[in-house]
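Attaching the record inline, Q. Sequence:
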Amino acid sequence: MVRMRILFLSMEYPPETGWGGIGSYVASIAPALAARGHEVHVLSCVRRQKFRDYIDRGVYIHRRGQFRIWGRRCFPLTVDRLRVSLSAFFWYGHLRRSGMKFDIIEYPDWAAEGLFFALVHSKPIVAHLHTPLPVISRYNGLSANTDNRWASALERFSVHRADLITSPSELLVKELKGLGWLQNQRVEVIPYCIDWLNWQGVQPVLMTEPTLLFVGRLERLKAPEVLVEAVAILQKEMPGIRTIFIGRSGVRDGLAYREWLERKYAGSVKGCEFTDYLPRSELPAWMARARVVVVPSWFESFSMVALEAMASGRPVCVTETTGLAGWVKGHNLGAVVPPGDPEALADALRPFLRDPVYAAEVGERARNFVREYFDPHRIAEAREAIYRKAIDCHIARRKEQLKKQSFGFPYACAERVGNLCLPQSWRDLVATEAAEEPWRHFYLRTGEALLQLLVQHPQFAAVDSLAGTRVLDVGCTPALDVLLACLGAEVVLLDLDWKELEKGRMYARLLGVEDRLRYVQADAFAIPFSPESFDLVWNSGFIEHFDDPVSIVRNMARLTRPGGAVIVLVPNRWTPHSLWIRECLRKRPKGYYWDFMGRERSYSRKELEGILKAAGLHVIASSTTNLRRSFLDDFTVLPRLKRLLPRRILYAIINFMDWMEKTLPFLRELGFMVGAIGTPNRIAVSSEFPKGSTERP
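Structure, as predicted:
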């Protein structure tokens, strides 16, 4: 299992802001993912919330406030969503600047918390459906005014731009498609989980009085009046029935919903107990008083309350428009009734209220079902698969997007050199990196230059594969070593820096050629191999860092079999980089990056040929390449252009430079890279095997 760093955006997270189902969901799934070895963070941005960081059950909690945005008086719903999403994005940037890099980001549909994340879309994102504004508006009787439409559009945009969309139930997906809010998007259905161990201490149903429990906001959507009417019917037969309502009161007809109920059902609310919002830690004690938990809502995407009741060993009575209804009905975990029908609700509740033994039997069945099907580790495993899929989708989407933006730039190199084809898988890999960082286009052009030199050697001129060829890269260039391995060669990467060797291992793993590469940590002046061990010994951008390049090339020649090849690639002397830019960079306080092994030099074709001859090699050919890197320097020009120009214009300039190099051959003499290939003359070589190397298989 690959460890991921996961970020949840959620205003709701108990105990301080655990208002509803979103908070319950995050509080259940986040610790479950952390228990499976992932690094899980929750970013909660709420108005007037104090800045606070702490760890809860292995989850990193970041509590932050919100910014103030003007205009709420005119467009409260829209402004609230902009404020929430902007605050979340700002504090996310703060976390990133502190060194946190996330692999996947999940946010809810509600309040469009992920709006700016969807807009930028620089990371893989998963949007989780709970109950979007159009559904709430429909069942709460809210008018579809301009503010409502704009707010809904923001939520819809944030969801549609995600790499993957998940939902707790098929019911919610069908509802949203019926409203036209979802079109042809594929939605993965994964139910909520619950840490059922927290609910095991609730007393058995057999010890309860005939008491009904309703948990949720008092509003039209939750339909508490339907339960009040059902209780009025039941009280004629069982006067001792009690009903407990827990939740904040909304507004109906200008009155608080509780007051509205008391006025309309003045004779029916006897025996009803109303309790305002209470901490989740106190909910098990109230659940212990209930014989049945009732969810009479007009619509519930899932119902965490019903799930918690089942975990407590309580039978549940839900409406057909509740996401859990299919499980409840299919496994006889309670009763399912039509929404808005108090008589049907009364009929469904009657057997549980009259017979505590029957209620206990159904409740125990519900408890066991929750343990098996809604276990946190089981649901966390399913979400892991979703996150991996979202990451793959994001990479594929980003790759296609960058291809379109680049006007074909990532593939601006020949597909075939001689009889050797540059593998598409390798080109795809480098293209992805080059599209993100244009300077890595260097790998494509250098790979082409390497093969162009190689096919000028008589031994390799007619081959269409390097199978059976032993290759040594002295001072490794991992991306090009993997190219040779893809062509069939057995490649040894030699370097003093393990980071470069590990990079080669990563590339090899991505392209499936691990068995063709070996990794050796050693000094280029004491290479730990017997003479005449390789068919090709080469390096790129290496010998220019040392005072005695001839001795390095001589060591390379010593290791090359008779008739084999030695290839050396170095910076060209006659380029702006070599003549001026590098000296300017050296004057900076931090100096010049590529001087880390000594003062970097440059060579003309004639000088490079002279080095090969001095090392005892017969020079077969030399060439120059990569004109655009000479003028669009990686350290000065290219970074400035990236800030000033849109990516499309930048790529158009780069493509133009590449076209000029291919169309006007004389311009190649100004290319950034000069290379030469030679074959060993018959010289005396030492058979001594140097010590002091480390090899990793």
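Residues 683-693 have pLDDT under 50 and may be disordered. The chain has 24 helices and 26 strands.

More tomorrow.
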